[in-house]
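Quick one, tokens below. Sequence please?
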């Protein structure tokens, strides 16, 4: 009931189909850090940068352990399979067109200063670090949310890509935008038709995943995982620890210092102490920021 009231209130009183700041704060209440003016959690740029090295499996494992079982979606068609997309979600909900509702939304948007067609309104809100995440109800033909013109605008503003439960057009033109990537359900030369924008920065569903504004998008070959903002740092730190322990284990196995049985089971105190010393000795060479290794060592008791 509370959630329904939030959505009704958003459509009735907030700017261009967006949830109010208070409503966003309510829905993302476990986030205790800085927020954008619109209320979205502002996960630090440093976390975004470090998230790029996290694997889908590592993020999935942390989220499952925290009780979040519905954050991954696969089955995408990618513009590039070697360009990850990492950033803060700006969410958009599209629905099949219904003229009475669509006309009201357009009228309200025009009165509030929105420019152009509604599918360009979310793009006007993008800032650097945002990922445009849209539920276009899986529509392919006449469901192309962007072409190369809008794609260039998106990348100019966000320096990121898009995640669309819908299609896109102009694959060739979009592929020429260096650094841009698109995760879509298909490619089609048609134009967007019989689709209406319902909300911006509201909770949406992307396949099997629930997505809130400000979630951290981690999109790689395997698919897309949406990390709740309050768990982003934990995902990153856990991934870095796993990375360091794996590298230590492989190094010591190659040296013949430990057996596979010793490395693949719970480490003894002796191995843990060796790991700590190895971190100190190789701090400047490891694939994790030095500051994070120093922080890890502070928390260790051996």
């Amino acid at each position: 009931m509370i959630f329904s009231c939030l959505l009704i209130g958003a459509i009735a009183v907030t700017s261009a189909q967006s949830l109010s700041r208070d409503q966003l704060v309510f829905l993302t209440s476990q986030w205790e850090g800085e927020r954008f003016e619109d209320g979205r959690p502002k996960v630090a740029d440093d976390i975004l940068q470090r998230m790029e090295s996290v694997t889908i499996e590592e993020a999935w494992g942390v989220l499952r352990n925290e009780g979040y079982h519905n954050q991954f979606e696969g089955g995408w068609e990618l513009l590039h399979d070697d360009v990850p997309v990492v950033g803060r979600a700006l969410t958009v909900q599209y629905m099949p067109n219904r003229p009475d509702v669509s006309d009201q939304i357009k009228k309200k948007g025009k009165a509030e200063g929105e420019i152009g067609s509604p599918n360009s309104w979310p793009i006007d809100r993008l800032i650097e670090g945002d990922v445009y995440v849209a539920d276009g109800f899986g529509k392919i033909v006449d469901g192309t949310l962007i072409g190369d013109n809008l794609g260039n605008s998106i990348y100019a503003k966000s320096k990121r890509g898009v995640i669309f439960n819908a299609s896109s057009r102009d694959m060739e033109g979009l592929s020429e935008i260096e650094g841009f990537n698109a995760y879509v359900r298909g490619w089609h030369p048609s134009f967007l038709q019989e689709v209406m924008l319902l909300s911006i920065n509201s909770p949406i569903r992307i396949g099997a995943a629930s997505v809130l504004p400000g979630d951290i998008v981690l999109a790689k070959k395997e698919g897309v995982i949406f990390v709740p903002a309050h768990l982003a740092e934990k995902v990153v730190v856990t991934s870095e620890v796993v990375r360091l322990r794996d590298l230590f284990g492989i190094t010591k196995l190659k040296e013949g210092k430990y057996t596979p049985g010793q490395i693949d089971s719970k480490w003894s105190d002796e191995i843990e102490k060796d790991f700590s010393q190895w971190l100190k000795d190789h701090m400047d060479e490891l694939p994790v920021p030095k500051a994070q290794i120093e922080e890890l060592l502070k928390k260790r008791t051996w």
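Residues 92 and 200 are 5 Å apart (CA to CA). The chain has two domains: 2-42+74-227, 233-299.
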